[in-house]
Amino acid sequence: MIRTPYRLTRRGLLGHGLAAGGLAALPATRALAQTSDEGGRLRARLYADIQNLDPAFWTSASDALVMECIYAFAMQFETGTDQFTAQPVAFSRIEQVDDTHIEFELHEGIMYSGDYGEMTAEDVKFSYERIADPEVDSPYAEDWAQLDHVEVTGKYSGTIVLKAPFAPLFNSTLPATSGIILPQAAIEAAGGQFTTEPPVYSGPYRIRSWEPRTRVVLERNPDFTLFEVEFDEIELIPIEDPKTAELGFEAGDIDHAQTSISSMARYAETPPARGSFQRFTGLNYYWLGMNEGNADLADQNIRRAIQHGISREAVVEAAYLGAAEPAAGIIAPGLTGHREANLYDYDPERARQLLDEAGASGLRVSLAIQQTAEDLAAAQVIQALLADIGVMVQIDQYESGTFWSLGVESEGDQWRDLQLFLFSFTMQPDPSWATVWFTPAQVGVWNWQRFDNAEYAELHRAAASELDTEARAEMYVRMQDLMEESGDFVFLTFEPVGILTADGVEDAMRPDGTPILPRFTRS
Amino acid sequence: MTLHTDPAAAPSRRTKPRGALARLVADPLGALGLTLIALTVLGAALAGLSPHSPTGLSPLDRFSGPTAEFWLGTDNLGRDLFTRVLYGARVALALSIGATALALVFGLVTGVAAGFGPRWADNILLLILDAMKSVPTVMLALVLVTFTGPSLWAVVLVVVLVNGPAYARMARTQTLAIRNADYIEAERSLGAGGARIVFAHVLPNILGPILILAAMDIPIVVGIEAGLSFLGLGVRPPAPSWGTILYDGFSYIRDSAWMVIAGGIPIVITALGFTFLGEALRDTFDPKLAKR
């Protein structure tokens, strides 16, 4: 038999390519899912990589999630309940003596890593006064806005002394990152602040390794005794795209993940095969902002016209596929100051009239969004609605790093060109956490609307010290009225939270769907 | 009569041989390529006949599968996918042919200038062309979009900067081969100027191979447009582009697979069409390579 040598020709290559393409189109055998419980390791999604684990300078919810694992918090929110109730953790006792004095006592024997010894009341004094110190310039100084000083009365005891009553103290200061206690010597050894390499650990876990943009591996801290932890390791995987996280969960590669909002209806109807789905009422608020510092939007009538030209129901329905409801403000249902109704309606006719009055026919504006499916859908609906009133919208998509610098003055002059933008902020369970970002002091920092209202600023300051819940609620509602009246805001929704948890894992979730990973157990 | 691939050996201006189209159509690969391209062109031309708007929103109709009304189903905003695919063909063809033409002009001008000009100009142009060629496409796109913002023109610029140097390199090589040929020397001795030599002898002889190369690059340009639009760096929403349809499809693939199918199929058809045509053109005009 004569064998001719095989020669690959260009035509042959094309033919083989077509054949291979055809084979690829055939149904593939599904890869077997990995098991989730090997070696006592919990694998969870981080929505972004860690950037800063310093309680005075952290930047994202991912940072906060990791900090909750590696530091002993003063207090922590209860899980598995629909009420925000904080319980002492590092504190063994905390008692409000009067409006401005709060006594505390630490558990004995809370050990720091390295040579930093035992946690004492001096550390409490250092940590809280550090965040409040104007020289430190912490973006979270408002969490301790009314702190006068911390008085140390014993090795483990002391008194938090306030300049005025401070309502957020037990809602968003002590049970959150601003309640973390670190030793002065460690911070000083790190040069006054640090980013992703904590100089000290005191929580249930410590960082074993960090591969940027790949994974953070936490291992159990043997010195931690405040509560029992179940998993030996926690592997946190940064997955920015929630749809990818969903696929990872369904493939068995992660045990816990937040879903995209647009997938929530599907998961509610058909839960994943190897786990469960839960829906939480989130606190994060989502809105359309308008930069009144931009020349084209300086006229309030133009901004009011845009407000009237946008049907919030249509935008929210398109972006969240029925999983969310339109919002009338920035303070979520269930929190003091939640606002039930807007001051205006969707009214295209009124919008056209306002544009005529402003002499802004043929207005063209840009709408800055991040590259997410929800933003893109919402933006296209806004574009169509505003086209109906004669405003042409150009949608500009940005990757997250660029987007988050668009309105920041310290990043350059690009804030002047910023016009409309879709924004979402994370939130702690106190209304002051929502309103703080829109004070005059935040103009060019997080207040990209450049909304500058003296009454608002005064109400924000006064509401933080108001202990009467009803009076406080009225103040926050009035503040949201002022925001809306400025024309700078179109409040869209509070983002619901969808959570996937693998079979065999018992999660521990705050009422807003935030996981407290060290409290996770096996079921 | 054939087109000489060695331009130095070409005694005079050559045009494509008679019966080339017939040979192209007779080649099964060429016929298939032409058919696929014709399908795409026809779709783009007839897009306006669709009863649906490519950008009109109808959220109540979202994620519909193929029906008598929506032949390829609808997307997450209830837009008819078939209509968007047809209008997307206009974007893809206009951009790929337009940008390739611009890249071709850039490449020819630069390549002939480098090949026909003084040595120092050749060295400088070569350095610039090699530097341009060394920048990865996506990185180049990111840098350009940072300065210009995402747009169709940004994609055109990316294509010119990515493909132009390749055409310039080829044009330079061919020009260098021709400029020292005997018949060019003869022309010179008869008093012919540089412009006459370039337009009467150089360009006609180097154009054929470069056009074939350009035809084979068109699917790459379609891919670049789709890729950049997929990354949000190309066509701005709500303009229909195959890349944006694919991106939307990727985001909602768990809700409906039709968006990915609708965005993917025309890219495959167009890419195969131009690749087949390019192969057949090469076989037709370059007998040395034919059937290899």
Automatic annotation (TrEMBL), chain A:
- One Pfam family matching this protein: SBP_bac_5
Q: Note the SUPFAM superfamilies from the entry.
A: Periplasmic binding protein-like II
Q: Biological process GO terms, please?
A: peptide transport
Q: Name one GO molecular function term.
A: peptide transmembrane transporter activity
What InterPro entries would the database entry show?
Peptide/Ni-bd (IPR030678), SBP_5 (IPR039424), SBP_5_dom (IPR000914), TAT_signal (IPR006311)
Question: A GO CC term?
Answer: ATP-binding cassette (ABC) transporter complex
Annotated signal sequence is 1-33
Can you say where in the cell this protein is located? Periplasm
Alphabetized, the UniProt keywords read: Signal, Transport
Give all residue intervals belonging to the Solute-binding protein family domain.
97-436
Q: What is its main location?
A: periplasm
Q: Which family does it belong to?
A: Belongs to the bacterial solute-binding protein 5 family.
Q: What is this protein called?
A: Peptide/nickel transport system substrate-binding protein
Its taxonomic path starts at: Bacteria, Pseudomonadati, Pseudomonadota, Alphaproteobacteria, Rhodobacterales
TrEMBL record, chain B:
Q: Which Pfam families match?
A: BPD_transp_1
Set out the biological process GO terms recorded for this chain's protein. transmembrane transport
Outline the extent of the ABC transmembrane type-1 domain.
89-278
Q: Which CDD domains match?
A: TM_PBP2
Q: Which Gene3D superfamilies match?
A: MetI-like
What are the coiled-coil residue ranges?
none
Its placement in the membrane is given as: Multi-pass membrane protein
- Write out the GO cellular component annotations: plasma membrane
Keyword annotations for this protein? Cell membrane, Membrane, Transmembrane, Transmembrane helix, Transport
The cross-references to PROSITE patterns, in alphabetical order and at most eight, read: ABC_TM1
Membrane-spanning regions, if any? 29-49, 91-117, 137-162, 210-236, 256-278
- UniProt subcellular location: Cell membrane
Tell me its family: Belongs to the binding-protein-dependent transport system permease family.
According to UniProt, the name of this protein is: Peptide/nickel transport system permease protein
